[in-house]
Amino acid sequence: MNPYLPHLATIQEIIPETASQDVKTFRVVFTDPEIRRSFTYQPGQFAEVSLFGAGEAPISITSSPTQEGYLEFSVKRAGVVTTALHYRQVGDPVGIRGPYGNNFPYRDMEGQNIVFIGGGIGLAPLRSLITFVLDPANRSRYAGISIIYGARSPGDLVFKWELERWGERDDVDLQVTVDRGDDEWTGRVGFVPQILLDLAPRPDNTVTVTCGPPIMIKFVLQNLEKLGFTPAQIVTTLEMRMKCGIGKCGRCNIGSSYVCQDGPVYTYEQLRKMPAEY
Amino acid sequence: MRRGEPAVARLLAENELDSILARVAERNALWVPAGDGEQSAFALYRPGLALRQEAGPTRRTAKEIFFPRTEILFTYGEDDGPPRLEAPPAEVLPAVVYGLRPCDARALTMLDPVFEDPGYPDGLWGGRRRGATLVGVGCTRPSRACFCTSVGGDPAGEEGLDVLVVPIPGHYLARAVTDRGEEWLQALDLPRAGPDHEAAAVRAAAAGAGLAVVDTEGLPAKLERMFGHAVWEQLHERCLGCAACTYLCPTCHCFDIVDEGGSRLRNWDSCMFPLFTLHASGHNPRLSGKERMRQRIMHKFSYYPQRQGRPACVGCGRCVEVCPVNLDLRSVLAQLKGVEA
């Protein structure tokens, strides 16, 4: 068995997300119809995305398993592989192997309120779970759904078409904020951790899921504790440099925990017991 | 081999070793220790190749036979057309490794759970491992940096071997450890050893036990409390971050994956390099030598034991021999063991 061999896939659609186009969403479809059917994943998992000649990078799957037939990856242009990906066109080949890692504990969340707290491109992994719990087949299993999402500026907000759809729903409380507004922005202005404090969700029967830049997560964690959330009620997903994705290449560990296999999803309760090396 | 039934010891005359190895090499790829000092490594046998006679392990490890410094994971084609993915066949590759030290064989058993994890078995490693017969030669004299007995090893240890060979005056005494080893020995049709030979082998093996002693008792449990300890601040100060220790360590397995010339390659990598953990965003969780040195030590003596139940160090002493600033792992361990925590 060669676990490093990816499946071939084709880029079916490219959606520019941010005004500067430094984030794009790539919808990809496996070449082999059999893989298209058999490839299953859970919200929170990631895949290694290959650009042959450039390499591969671990990217969270932003689509939801309830959306069949394709996978979506929202990618910020940052390094060698993500830059190469940003130059690709519809119809170009990519390689996909995975899915890897654990997943959001969506079974344990049943019956509870969920507060999603995202910043910037950090909404990408959360979107998989948001789409999953909002799916008609699953929505009744969960109580209230709130989404607090922020970016540096209106142009940096990702998934604007999703935000619109989520905002229109009666069963979703969506709060969007930006650090700095512009002439056209009429929404909230303020940092995500502060908006969280202002909105003050109640901790009873509630679980929070957060992802964003490290500085945002740091203050979100502090503020959630101020609001009375216990570390077990706070779920996050980590980013780490990875190569193999399958626990062998030795670079993504935090203490004895391998983010590629034991993560990327951790509760704050778990994280607090791990060395602060991430 | 049936349990409780001691394997028959056989005798291999010193002056017949070369002709026996030549016979083995006719049937299988045969790896033997060759070269001296810093140049010593495993090489494919050819008639007349002088086997290394020095004490202790070869400078380069037997790990390289199973996990080469660089290898092709698959090819994707060099032209601009659609990628054509072709992987090397994951097949069992028959080979014999003669003359590896018990520490090197033991190290392979520490890498097996990493590469042979049932969730994602690595066929490249697995194919080579399953095809290989390991014929170890016990140590009758330690090298100056050896400390295998301090980390659960033994100069005449059998773990990971199919056959253990112990040098005695004029001969080698060979005993199978596994069924595979027994078959291999039977095929050679060697004479049985007598009681005098066996006694000589016991004496020879015991002679190898005069090794440096490092007290690592309880260290893994203690290290679990020491991530934030001040001792790391000064432990790493002399380290240049050259990574020679990790490249020559028989239990280090970190690798990089890169695309080059139409192939996706796996190359050895090292946690001692700053780029190892550098994110594309610029963030680096192991920013300085302190974090990187801590990772190397903690991985071997705390993180790996937490997952696999024992430290990932076999006491071969290569890291001690090769360090350009004489940063001796044995004294690092003694310091960690000694400080209050």
How would you describe this protein?
The complex is a heterodimer of chains A (278) and B (341). Chain A is an alpha/beta fold. Chain A has two domains: 7-100, Elongation Factor Tu (Ef-tu), domain 3 (Beta Barrel), CATH 2.40.30.10; 113-237, Nucleotide-binding domain of ferredoxin-NADP reductase (FNR) module (Rossmann fold, 3-Layer(aba) Sandwich), CATH 3.40.50. In chain A, 22% of the residues lie in helices and 30% in strands. Chain A contains seven helices and 15 strands. In chain A, helix 6 links the parallel strand 11 and strand 12. In chain A, helix 5 runs parallel beside helix 6. Chain A is globular. The relative contact order of chain A is 0.14. The mean pLDDT of chain A is 96. The N and C termini of chain B lie far apart (47 Å). Chain B has twelve helices and ten strands. The A-B interface holds A 1-6, 8, 50, 52-57, 78-80, 82, 93, 95, 214, 239-241, 243-244, 246-251, 253-256, 261, 275, 277-278 and B 73-74, 76-77, 82-83, 85, 87-88, 90, 114-115, 117, 119-124, 126, 227-228, 253-259, 264, 266, 269, 271, 276-281, 283, 285-286, 291, 298-299, 302-304, 306-307.
In short:
The complex is a heterodimer of chains A (278) and B (341). Helix content of chain A is 22%, strand content 30%.
Output the keywords.
heterodimer, A: 278 residues, alpha/beta, Elongation Factor Tu (Ef-tu), domain 3, Rossmann fold, 2 domains, seven-stranded mixed β-sheet, six-stranded antiparallel β-sheet, 15 strands, 22% helix, 30% strand, globular, B: 341 residues, three-stranded antiparallel β-sheet, 12 helices, 10 strands
